[in-house]
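user: Please review this fold.
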Amino acid sequence: MNANRRRGEIVATLDGRSCRLCLTLGTLAELESAYEADDLGALVARFSGGRLSALDLIRIVGAGLRGGGEAVTDEAVGAMQCEGGVAGFAAIVSELLTATFGAAEGAAGQNP
């Protein structure tokens, strides 16, 4: 499976299979609503703080999977397995946020 980085896509292995993740405009709006963010700038500021909770990882990975075409709930994402455990999920989130917003936001995956 290939990712189109120009579209902000990444590929990650979850539950032993390759999955495409992408934060589309629709899934970014979903995240804005979940975090009660006024705009994308507020969302970026939250994610670039370098501290993400387990719920943050679940929400972002879930949004990315839905943007990549998967019909998955956040509850299902919370039950998924990833190589490296929580650190693996944090790496996926970091890569996804970097693909979506650029290199400056890559710090979001540090020490969730």
Summary: The chain has one domain: 23-109. The longest helix spans residues 85-101.
